[in-house]
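agent> Task received from the user: take the single chain below, predict its 3D structure, and emit structure tokens. No templates, no multimer pairing.
agent> Plan: (1) validate residues, (2) run structure prediction, (3) serialize to tokens, (4) report one or two observations.
agent> Step 1 OK, no nonstandard residues flagged.
tool_call: predict_structure(input=
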Amino acid sequence: MEMKGENHKGKALNLLRSRVCDPKFAFKALYDSPESNYSKLKFMISSSVTEACNNSILLLGPRGSGKISVLELVIRDLLDEYPDSISMIRLSGLLHSDDISAFKEIARQLCMEHQLLFSKSASFDDNSQFMVAMLKECGLAHKTVIFVLDEFDLFAQGKQRLLYSLLDAMQSVTSQAVVLGISCRLDADQLLEKRVRSRLLVHMLTLPVDSSFPRDYAIEFNRRVQNIVEDKRFKETFNAYLNFDSSVKHLLKFLFCAISHMDSKTGFLSHENFKTAFSSIYRQPKLECLRNCSILELYILVCMKRLEVKEKSFCNFNSVMKEYKSIHDSFQTSDYYDRNVCLRAFEHLINRELICFTDNRGHSLSIEYRPVKLLISSAELNQGLKAYHSCPAILQKLMDREG
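)
tool_result: status=success, residues=403
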């Protein structure tokens, strides 16, 4: 009897772990409603496929909010429903933002998809004309080409020839395409509410009351999970975690950590499991790096975060310096340093991997002109500033204002 009991406890642990590692199950709680982003996105793309029409869609939201995860679920379902009617082309603005590499990559993927010979030596015009011709061929064969442009805002810079070419091709009667851009810009109002996170948590941790587990054990397990979720202490821990990082990706990491601390003898979860998980995740390398940053480096990070919130599509050292000067002029701060000192601090942040370059052109441009992006979330930066003992009050004030 005891052996059988140990089996179902281990089985419960494995089930919960497998759920946390399965994005389709994780997001099921979030797209059951016909009003969910999953349902809307699937309807828009499937309509383009079944009605042979062109469409353009833009997915906006902060990093980690689940844009790509939901898109992948939609695409997976559509490929199951229409296996012979969809052709996928995937590009990333971090790799293919310049027109030459973008058209070359499109040509390569189209050749691979349709079992054609790809020419590495083909010119920009050859690849551009090939794409237009293939769109017409796919349209005549009633096949929709779906272009997924990740980091879409990077494609919108410069000459934008790729976007113009795609839009021109979509004007053709014979073409059949969907252009789907993904961007982290305009993300302030896209965060999922905390009550939705709580619903996801209960969905992930509830055991099925069927023959898979002893009925009494499953009922008691679910009752305890519900009690934990409703407990005031748990709500404090959970809200502290959401304030620290509210992305779905990190929430699943949090749950996996909590599940891994489940008592193997009793086979039940407890509030202590979640508290331990929060404590272990709370101390992250990026937060440790922030504690060792100089005041000037903190200013640079806050300036970059302000530029991100202002939806600036292009950020480099020069634009950061303009924001830095603007803060100094507005608040008459005493912490104002020479440009060369700022550049060294900027390079230090790159070496610490708190920021990174977004281009793939090596060192052809001076460091002042190369586009950069933050590798630290607003929650992490905010938490780091609060933990920094000598942090200037103006920095925390600026972050609270942007938050």
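agent> Step 4: summary for the user.
The first strand starts at residue 55 and ends at 60.
agent> Done.
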